[in-house]
Amino acid sequence: MRIHRILVPTDFGPASDAALAQARQLAAALGASLHLVHVLEDAQRADALAASLEAALGHETAVLNGPTAPTIVEYATDRAFDLIVMGTHGRTGVAHLLLGSVAEQVVRTAPCPVLTVRERRAPAFLMEAPVIPATAQV
């Protein structure tokens, strides 16, 4: 399979940033073009945002209006992308059940392979406050 066109949906969060970094490396290694898409529910802001993003990021950029996962899949289908690279928050349990997962919906319905990238976080034990043992006074 030859990858010519890579789509990167973004919500501008840390997981999307990690996916964009991975997609840039893949695009460079494969000689593929990179395209970014952001889905908004406010159509009036879409065109202005797309133009400013494309200028700032240096990649073809689209800002779309509609329900996020179906809109991403429709865009990828209509434009024959070979790969979608997108971030995932890695929610599990109740948070996953309540919030769902855009990445999971895209994986299930996309017309092409989907690479999901988790944001890089320090392990939980490194983020907790250090436990300082009490010292015995002599």
The average pLDDT is 80
Can you write the helix and strand succession as a string?
Answer: EHEHEHEHHEH
The CATH topology annotation reads as: Rossmann fold
CATH superfamily: HUPs
The SS-based structural class is: alpha/beta
| Total strand segments | 5
Q: How many domains comprise the coordinates?
A: 1
Please tell me the CATH architecture by its name. 3-Layer(aba) Sandwich
Structure commentary:
The chain is of the alpha/beta class and 138 residues long. The protein has one domain (5-120): Rossmann fold. Helices cover 45% and strands 22% of the residues. The chain is built from six helices and five strands. Strands 3-2-1-4-5 form a five-stranded parallel β-sheet, with helices on both faces. Helix 3 (68-78) runs parallel beside helix 5 (102-109). The longest helix has 17 residues, at 14-30. It is globular, with a radius of gyration of 19 Å. The termini are far apart.
Keywords summarizing the entry:
single chain; 138 residues; alpha/beta; Rossmann fold; 5-stranded parallel sheet
Set down the secondary structure blueprint.
Elements: E1 5-9, H1 14-30, E2 33-40, H2 43-57, E3 60-65, H3 68-78, E4 83-88, H4 93-99, H5 102-109, E5 114-118, H6 124-127
Parallel strand pairs: 1-2, 1-4, 2-3, 4-5
Helix pairs in contact: 3-5
Question: Would you summarize the structure shown here?
Answer:
By secondary structure, this protein is an alpha/beta fold. It contains 6 helices and 5 strands.
